[in-house]
Structures
1.
Amino acid sequence: MENAIKNKKILITGGAGFIGSNLCNYFVKNNEVVCLDNFATGHFHNIAHLIDNKNFTLIEGDIRDYTVCEAAVKGIDYVLHQAALGSVPRSINDPITSNEVNVSGFLNILRASTQEGVARFVYAASSSTYGDSEALPKLEDVIGNPLSPYAVTKYVNELYADVFSKTYGIEVIGLRYFNVFGRNQDPNGAYAAVIPKFVKSFINHESPVINGDGNFSRDFTYIDNVVHMNEKALETKDINAINTVYNTAYGDRTTLNELIKYLKEYLSEFDPEISNIEVKYDSIRDGDIPHSLASIEKAKKLLNYNPKYSLKEGLREAVEWYWKNLK
Ligand code: NAD
C-alpha cells in the first residue's frame, strides 16, 4: 500500500486490538500515532514492537472516562475510532456493558474530538446494522431492524455521528465492516470470530463447530482491505464523500462450508493430518443473520476504494500467519 497520509497526528482507539493494531502498524510508518486502549479484549503483544518507536504513544485508558478521551485527543488531526466490545453473543449476555463502551464511550470520544477541533473522525461501524433486512447485496441506505444489542449500539454510533456532523460541523465517516479477518485476530475466548476459531481448532486437531448447517454466507474481508479503506476515508477531500457511511468489504460471499474447505486445504499444506478432520454442526445462534454480502459501489465511486485481497488471497496470508504464531 502506498501510504498517502503523512506527517499527521492520528489517535487510534482500540489500537491494541485486531483491527486497531493493524492500523497502528500501517500509519506509524509516516505519522505520529497515539494508541488508546484499556486491554479489555486487545493485547499488549499486538503493539509491543512499537513501544520504542518515537512516533508511537500508548495511553492505557478507558473510553468510558471522558477525561481520558479529552487527554487522548490533544493535538490530534485524525481519529480512527475502533474501541468497542465486539461480538453479538457478548452483547446478548451483557447488554449493559456493551452499551456503556459502544455508545457512551463512543459519545465521549466523539464529543472530545469535536471540542478539540479534530479534522476528521473515522469510526468502525458494522454490517450488523443491516439487521433483519434480507436484501442482497447490502446497500448503505437500505437497513432493517437491529437483531442484537450490539447492532443497536453500532447503529446509534451512526446516528450520533450524523447529528454531530450536522450540529457541530465535525467531519465524520463510518465504515461498516463486514466480517474482517487476518493477522492479530484473537482465536481465544468464547467470543472469538469464526476464522481464527476454526484455524485454531484445525491446528489443535479438533473438529471446528459450525452453528447451523454451514450454508450461511458472509462477505469475509481481509484486514489489508480494511486498512486501505481507513486510509481512503482519511484521504478524501470530496465534500460529497464525508458525513456518511460506507460498506467495508470485498463484495463477494462465501458459505461457512466453503470457508472450511479452503481452510482445510491451505492448512493441510503445513500439516497433512488436518485434511482428515471432520466438522461438527450445532444449533444456529441468536442474532445471526443467514446471509451477508456488501455492495462496495459507493466506496469505489466516492472514495476510490479498490480492495486488493479476495477471501482466498487473504486466507492464504492469514493461515500462514496463524501457523507461525499459534504453533
Ligand atoms: P478487538 O476486540 O480486537 O478490538 C477492540 C479494541 O478495543 C480492543 O483492543 C479492546 O481492548 C479495546 N477496548 C474495548 N473496550 C475499551 C474501552 N472501554 N476503552 C478503551 N479501549 C477499549 O476487535 P476488532 O475486531 O479489532 O474490532 C474493532 C472495531 O471494529 C470494533 O469497533 C468492532 O465493533 C468493529 N467491527 C469489527 C468487525 C470484525 O469483523 N472484526 C466487524 C464489524 C465491526
2.
Amino acid sequence: MDIGSTATLNNGIEMPLLGLGVYLTPDGKICRQAVTEALDFGYRHVDTARIYENEKSVGKAIHESEIPREEIFVTTKLWNSDHGYDRTIAACKESLDRLGMDYVDCYLIHWPVEELRSESWRAMETLHEEGLCRSIGVSNYMIHHLEELMGECNVVPAANQVEFSPFLFQERLLAFCRSQGIMLQAYSPLTKGQRLDDPLLATIADRHGVTAAQVLIRWALQHDVVVLPKSQDPQRIRENGSIYGFELTEEEMQQLNGLDEGLRTSWDPTHQP
Ligand code: NDP
C-alpha cells in the first residue's frame, strides 16, 4: 500500500484510499496552497462540498497542477437546501462551474434530508447517466437510510461518507456497507484534533515512531476504508500522507477499536428519520 493505492468501487471506478479533506479550509490562497501541497506530495483525491465554499480554489489548484484531470479524484456534495429533482441537477452544474470541471468523480448527498432525498437520488442517477458524475453516493446515511435507498434505487450508491475513528467505530454500519458493495469513507478521522492526546494513541505512536494523527489514519486504512484527513498546514499534509512505513498489529487494532465512545464531532444522523 502507498499514497497511490486505490479501492475499486462497485461501478469499477478507482477511488484513492487517502484523500485531502478541505472542510474549513479558507477559500483562496490557503485552500489553493493546501491542495497544491497535497498533490505535490502525491495525494490524488480531494474532498470538498458546496457548503465548504472553496470549490473554486480546489478546481484552480487542480488545474494549475498540470496533473492530468483523470488522475485526480474529486468529490463534492449536494447541500441540504438544494434537494429535490430539479434543484439537485442545477446544484451539481453550479458546483461543476465553480470547480471549472466537466465532471466530478463522485457526487454525494451530504445529509439524508427527509422526504426529498429519494427524489434527489433520482436526479443523482440522471447526473450519473449523463456523465456529469462518474460515481454517486451518500453521506451521513445510517443503516435505515441505506435500506430505504436500496429498496428504491436503480444505481446503488458507490460510497457512504460518515464519521469514523476509533472513538466512533461504526462497526455495524461498516459491515452493512460492505455487504451492499458500498465503500465507506471516513470523515473527521483525526477527531478534529479532539482526541489526539489520548494515552493509548500516544503509546502506540511512540512504539512505531510516528504521531497520533498517523496512527489514526493508519487505523482507518487497515479497516479497508477510504480516509479523508483535513489539514491546511503543509507540514501536517505531508505528515498525514506519510503513513506507509509502518503497520499496526492485530492487537493494536483491537485496542484502538476498544476506544469507541460514540464520539461525534459534528452532526449525528442516528435519529434522522
Ligand atoms: P479531521 O478529523 O480531519 O481533523 C482536522 C483538524 O485536525 C484540523 O484542525 C487540522 O488542523 C488538524 N490536523 C490535521 N492534521 C493534523 C496532524 N497531523 N496533527 C495535528 N493536528 C492535525 O476533521 P474534519 O472534520 O475536517 O474531517 C476531514 C474531512 O472529512 C473534512 O475536511 C471533509 O472533507 C470531510 N467531512 C465530511 C463531513 C460530511 O458530513 N460528509 C463532515 C465532516 C468532515 P490544520 O488544518 O491546521 O492542520
